[in-house]
Specification:
Number of helices of chain B: 9
CATH topology of the largest domain in chain B: Fumarate Reductase Iron-sulfur Protein, Chain B, domain 2
Radius of gyration of chain B: 21 Å
CATH topology of one domain in chain A: Flavocytochrome C3, Chain A, domain 1
CATH architecture of the largest domain in chain B: Orthogonal Bundle
Structural class of chain B: alpha+beta
CATH superfamily of one domain in chain A: Succinate dehydrogenase/fumarate reductase flavoprotein, catalytic domain
Strand content of chain B: 5-15%
Strand content of chain A: 15-25%
Helix content of chain B: 25-40%
CATH class of the largest domain in chain B: Mainly Alpha
Number of strands of chain B: 7
Oligomer: heterodimer
Radius of gyration of chain A: 24 Å
Chain lengths: ~650, ~250
C-alpha cells in the first residue's frame, strides 16, 4: 500500500499528532526527524495547554478563548481555524489526559488549570512545569504503539532536503539524508506533512533548540510553497541570558504570582533585598492595572526591553529586570513550578525561591510559517474531513504546528501553541485521510525518485567539497546578532534596510565558506552549510516583510508608525480617542492583511504579496489591556453608526 | 581565573574507526557550559597545537536538560553536557561518548536500543480511539506527584551507562525502561493492560537481569526513583502470578 503512505517530516507534537490520527484512519506513515522524536523541540514548552474546560466556575467558554486568541493576535489570524481550535480544545485536553499525560490535579481528582497571559480565566492545563515534554511523550507513546503494529516507520537522525513533485506539481515523495552515513534516499508518498517547527536559529541565541534551523521550511519554500507572515516572530518576555542559548522561564512563573520589577531610581546599586517595597517599580502592574504582570507577551517584552534600553532602569544599568517569586512559599513553588525553577538554578547557580531571577526578552516563536489553507463550512468553522485543511498552495503538501502560519496571527498567547500543534496535527491526520479517499493518488515514477535523489546527493557533494576561507558557524553567529539587534524588539526602516544589506553579504560569504569536515560519517559541518543557506533564505523573507509593513501589529513593533492609545486617564469624551480610532480604522484598512512571501529563483529576494484576513466572526478593534479603552471604543462606534458612517 | 579552558575529547571518525584523543584550548567566557565549548571549537576548529581539525560531532537539542540528547561522559561521569558548567569542572575537561551504546561519530552514539525496549514493554496507554470520549478517569493528586516523576524520564541512558548489568553484549532493557513500565502500570487505564506488559518485563533481557547494584538511581539526572520502580514491578509480577494462578 505504498501509495497510501504519508510522509511526515518532524516528530514534535504536530507531526506525532498527525501520525497517530492518520494511523487510526487506516493510513501508513513514515516519520522523518533530525533527532529521536522524543527529543523534539516541543519538550521545551513548560507552562501549559489552553482549553476552556471551565472547571473553576468562572464562566469561561471556547468562544471567549476564541475572542482572546484573535484579539491577542491583533486580528491577523484567519478566524475559522481559530474558532474550530478553541471549540475542540477541551476535547483535545481530555484526549491527552486519557493517553496518560500526567496533568496536575485538583484535590477532587479533576484536571487543574492555571492562568496565563492574555486572558482573565484559568484556562491552562499543565503537567508540572514541563507540559510540552509530557504531551510529547504521550503522543510519542501512541506513535510507538502504531510502530509496533507496523503502521509507522521512523527515520530518526534523518534530514528532509527536498519535496518530489510530479509533472503536475503534486507532491509524490521526498528526499532525505541519513545524518550518520550521509546517504540520500527518496521516499514515495501521496502526501507530505511538514511539521518541522520554527526557524528560530536565524536569530542566533534564542529559546529554540539547536535543531530549529528552519531549513526544511526553506527547502519547501524554495520549491514554491508560500510563506505567510514571516515578519511575525514572538519575543518571550522572560529569557535567562546564557552562553550557548537563552533559556526560558515560563510565563507560568508570572501566572503563579511572579512580579516583574526594577529599582525605581535610576542608578540604584543596592542589592535587591536592600531596596524597600516603595522603591521598587512594579512597572507592568502600574501601567496595566487590569492584567498586571500577565499582559500578552509582546507588550511585556517591549515594556521590559524599553525600561532597560530607553528608560535606563535595568538592574545595575544592564539589560535585565527582576522576576520575583520570593513572596511565595517554597513548598508552593516546588509543587507548581519545580521543574522550571530547577532549570534556573542549574544554569545560573542561584535559587529563585530565595533570590529574584534576572530576566530579559528573547526570541521565542514564529507565528509566521508555511502558508496553510483551510476550507470553511457554512457556520465559519473548519469543514470536517476536507483535504484542504492545513494544505499549502502545493497539492499534497501540508504544513502544521509552528511550521504553519495559522492560528496565532501577529502574536501568540501563551499555552496556545501546544494546543494549536496538537489540534492542527489531528486535523492534518483527517485531511490526509480525506485526500487518500477522495482523489486519485499520484504514483511517483521511479525514474523521478532516482533523479531527485541523485540531484540532492550531487548538491551535497558540492557542499562537502567547499573549501573557502569563511567559517559557516561564524557567519551564523553574525547573522543571529544582526537579526536580534535590528529585527526583533523594535523595528526601524533605516535599520532594516541596513540589515537587508548585511543578510545579502552573509549569503555572499556563505559561497566562500568551508565545509570544515570532509568526513563521510556524522558530518555536522557540511550539512550546516545547507542549514545556514536555509536560515539566510528565510531571514530575507522576515526582513523584507518587516520592512514593508509600516505599522505596529502584535509582535511587529515599528515605533515610527505607532498609533498609541490615549493614556488611560484621558476622559472618554476627549477627541484624542476619536483621532486614535480613526487612525486605527485607516491602518486596519491598509494593513490587516496576511503577508505572503513567494520565493523567486530569478531574484535574490522574495516577492511579497498580501491576502485579506478572514474576519467573518469578529471585527477588528484596538487591543486594550487597561480596561479603559473598551468604553471609549464603544462610544466611538456608536457615534459612527449614528452618523451613518460605514462601520 | 584562567583565560583558557583545557579540554580533551575522545573522538572517532566513523562507527568502526579506532578512537583517538584530541586536546583543545578554548578562550574562557563567563557562564560557559560544555555545549558552549563545543560551539567555540567549531567556530575555530583547531587543536591545542594550532593544527586544523574537523569540528567535533555531538548530539544536542533543547539545551535545557529536558530532551536527553546531549548526554556524554564528562570527567568520568555520565550526564547532560548542557548542565555541565565549566566553572564547576576540573580541567582538563575530559569528554567521551557513552560506552554502552555504539558510537556513530565522536561524542554521538546510537541509543535506538532504549526505544526498541520501550516498544517491547508496551510503553503506552491503549485507548479506544482518539475521538472525544469526555474526560479521562479521575486521579488522586498524590498519585500524579508520583507518576509525574517517572514521566520526566527523557530516555537519556545515564542509568544504563552506569549499570553493571547493562552491556553492549546482552539484551538487558535497563532501569529507565523498567521505570516506564511501572509508570504505565500506575495509570488507571494502563493498569488494565498490565498483564502483557509484565510478561514483557519478565521476558529475555527483563527485570531478572537487574543485579540491584542501585547505580541507576544515583546517575539519573531527574532523580527518578528507579530502584523503587523495580521493587514495585516485582511486587506487581508476584501479585499477577498469584491471582493468575488462582483464576485458573
Amino acid at each position: 500500500m505504498s501509495d497510501k503512505r504519508v510522509l511526515i517530516v518532524g516528530g514534535g507534537l504536530a507531526g506525532l499528532a498527525a501520525a497517530m490520527k492518520a494511523c487510526e484512519l487506516g493510513l501508513e506513515v513514515d516519520i522523518f526527524s533530525m533527532v529521536h522524536v522524543k527529543r523534539s523541540h516541543s519538550v521545551c514548552a513548560q507552562g501549559g495547554i489552553n482549553g476552556a474546560v471551565n472547571t473553576k466556575g468562572e464562566g469561561d467558554s471556547p468562544y471567549i478563548h476564541f475572542v482572546d486568541t484573535v484579539k491577542g493576535g491583533d486580528f491577523l489570524a484567519d478566524q475559522p481555524p481559530v474558532l474550530s481550535m478553541c471549540e475542540a480544545a477541551p476535547a483535545v485536553i481530555n484526549l491527552m489526559d486519557r493517553l496518560g499525560v500526567t496533568f496536575n490535579r485538583t484535590p477532587e481528582g479533576l484536571l487543574d488549570f492555571r492562568r496565563f497571559g492574555g486572558t482573565l480565566h484559568h484556562r491552562t492545563a499543565f503537567a508540572g512545569a514541563s507540559t510540552g515534554q509530557q504531551l510529547l511523550y504521550g503522543l510519542d507513546e501512541q506513535v510507538r504503539r502504531w510502530e509496533a503494529q507496523g503502521k509507522v516507520r521512523k527515520f530518526e537522525n534523518w534530514e528532509f532536503t527536498r519535496l518530489i513533485l510530479d509533472s503536475e506539481g503534486k507532491a509524490v515523495g521526498i528526499v532525505a539524508q541519513d545524518l550518520t552515513t550521509m546517504e540520500f534516499k527518496s521516499f514515495p508518498g501521496f502526501a507530505v506533512v511538514l511539521a518541522t517547527g520554527g526557524p528560530g536559529l536565524m536569530f542566533g541565541k534564542t529559546t529554540n533548540s539547536t535543531i530549529n534551523f528552519g531549513s526544511a521550511t526553506a527547502a519547501a519554500y524554495k520549491q514554491g510553497v508560500w510563506y505567510g507572515n514571516p515578519e511575525m516572530v514572538q519575543i518571550h518576555p522572560t529569557g535567562i541570558p546564557g552562553s550557548d542559548k537563552l533559556r526560558l522561564i515560563s510565563e507560568s512563573a508570572r501566572g503563579e504570582g511572579g512580579r516583574v520589577w526594577v529599582p525605581r531610581n535610576k542608578g540604584d546599586k543596592r542589592a535587591w533585598n536592600e531596596i524597600p517595597p516603595a522603591e521598587r517599580y512594579y512597572f507592568l502592574e502600574e501601567r496595566y492595572p487590569l492584567y498586571g504582570n500577565l499582559v500578552p507577551r509582546d507588550i511585556a517584552s517591549r515594556e521590559i526591553a524599553l525600561i532597560c534600553t530607553k528608560e535606563g532602569l535595568g538592574i545595575g544599568g544592564r539589560n535585565a529586570v527582576y522576576l520575583d517569586l520570593t513572596h511565595r512559599s517554597e513548598e508552593y513553588l516546588l509543587k507548581k513550578l519545580g521543574a522550571i525553577l530547577d532549570i534556573y538554578e542549574k544554569f545560573r547557580g542561584v535559587d529563585p525561591k530565595k533570590v529574584p531571577m534576572e530576566i530579559y526578552p528573547a526570541y521565542h516563536y514564529s507565528m509566521g510559517g508555511l502558508y496553510a489553507g483551510y476550507e470553511a463550512d457554512a457556520t465559519g468553522r473548519l469543514l470536517k474531513d476536507s483535504p484542504q485543511n492545513q494544505m499549502t498552495n502545493i497539492p499534497g503538501v501540508y504544513a502544521v504546528g509552528e511550521a504553519d502560519h495559522q492560528y496565532h496571527g501577529a502574536n501568540r498567547l501563551g499555552a496556545n501553541s501546544l494546543m494549536s500543534c496538537i489540534f492542527a496535527g489531528l486535523v492534518t491526520g483527517e485531511s490526509v485521510a480525506a485526500l487518500a479517499k477522495n482523489s486519485k493518488t499520484a504514483e511517483a515514477p521511479s525514474s523521478l525518485l532516482e533523479s531527485e535523489c541523485k540531484r540532492e546527493d550531487e548538491t551535497y557533494k558540492k557542499l562537502l567539497a567547499q573549501d573557502g576561507a569563511e567559517n559557516p558557524f561564524v557567519i551564523h553567529k553574525e547573522l543571529g546578532d544582526a537579526m536580534s539587534a535590528f529585527c526583533l524588539i523594535e523595528r526601524h526602516n533605516d535599520e532594516l534596510v541596513k540589515l537587508q544589506g548585511m543578510v545579502d553579504s552573509y549569503a555572499e560569504r556563505l559561497k566562500k565558506a568551508s565545509s570544515l569536515d570532509k568526513s563521510g560519517s556524522g558530518n555536522m559541518s557540511a550539512v550546516f552549510l545547507r542549514q545556514l543557506d536555509g536560515m539566510i533564505t528565510m531571514a530575507k523573507a522576515v526582513v523584507d516583510a518587516a520592512l514593508l509593513r509600516d505599522e505596529c501589529r502584535g509582535a511587529h513593533s515599528k515605533p515610527a508608525f505607532d498609533n498609541p492609545a490615549p493614556s488611560k486617564e484621558t476622559p472618554i469624551e476627549d477627541p484624542a480617542w476619536t483621532a486614535y480610532y480613526e487612525k486605527f480604522l485607516a491602518q486596519t484598512q491598509t494593513w490587516l492583511k496576511t503577508t505572503v512571501a513567494k520565493y523567486d529563483p530569478s531574484k535574490s529576494h522574495p516577492t511579497i504579496e498580501y491576502k485579506d484576513v478572514d474576519t467573518r466572526h469578529l471585527s477588528p478593534e484596538p487591543r486594550d489591556y487597561t480596561g479603559v479603552g473598551k468604553k471609549a471604543w464603544k462610544k466611538f462606534m456608536d457615534n459612527r453608526k449614528a452618523t451613518g458612517a460605514a462601520a | 581565573m584562567s583565560t583558557t579552558v583545557e579540554v580533551r575529547i575522545k573522538r572517532q571518525d566513523s562507527p568502526n574507526a579506532p578512537a583517538y584523543w584530541t586536546e583543545f584550548s578554548i578562550a574562557y567566557e563567563e557562564g560557559m557550559n560544555v555545549i558552549s565549548l563545543l560551539q567555540a571549537i567549531r567556530r575555530d576548529p583547531k587543536d591545542k597545537s594550532g593544527k586544523s581539525v574537523a569540528p567535533v560531532t555531538w548530539e544536542s537539542s533543547c539545551l535545557e536538560e529536558v530532551c536527553g540528547a546531549c548526554t556524554m561522559v564528562i570527567n568520568g561521569n555520565v550526564r547532560q553536557a548542557c548542565t555541565a558548567l565549566v566553572d564547576k569542572l576540573e580541567q582538563p575537561i575530559q569528554l567521551e561518548p557513552m560506552s554502552k551504546f555504539p558510537v556513530e561519530r565522536d561524542l554521538r552514539v546510537n541509543r535506538q536500543r532504549i526505544f526498541d525496549n520501550l516498544k517491547k514493554v508496551n510503553g503506552w496507554v491503549e485507548i479506544d480511539g482518539y475521538h472525544d470520549q469526555g474526560p479521562g478517569p479521575r486521579q488522586d493528586p498524590n498519585d500524579q506527584t508520583t507518576t509525574y516523576k517517572y514521566s520526566e524520564c527523557m530516555s537519556c541512558g545515564c542509568c544504563m551507562e552506569v549499570c553493571p548489568q547493562f552491556t553492549t553484549l546482552n539484551d538487558f532493557m535497563g532501569a529507565a525502561v523498567l521505570g516506564q513500565a511501572r509508570l504505565f502500570n500506575m495509570h488507571p487505564t494502563g493498569a488494565m493492560q498490565m498483564g502483557p506488559r509484565l510478561d514483557a518485563v519478565t521476558s529475555e533481557g527483563g527485570i531478572q537481569d537487574c543485579g540491584l547494584a542501585q547505580q541507576c538511581v544515583k546517575a539519573c539526572p531527574k532523580h527518578i526513583p528507579l530502584v523503587e520502580a523495580i521493587g514495585q514491578l516485582q511486587r506487581d509480577i508476584t501479585i499477577n502470578k498469584v491471582f493468575g494462578a488462582l483464576k485458573k
